[in-house]
Amino acid sequence: MPTLRQRHAITETDDVARAIDMAAAVWPELREDRAALLRRIIALGAERLEESGIERAARRRAAIRMHAGALDGVYLDDEAQALREEWPA
Hints:
mainly alpha
């Protein structure tokens, strides 16, 4: 069928065949359509990747909030002034 979309050829290696067979157990209505099973595997993988990215971003934000202010630049006594004097104006 003509398409403007890019096509991909996937060789059914042992790992790919095992994944398709496992998918056929999950989606038995697609058991006879291995290409459809591959599309389902890819879609599920994309969902998992998206979820892990969202979770990773949430963990980063939590870590940033937890450490916010830890390096707030508070100096003891005249340390800030001493540091300023080390640099020419």
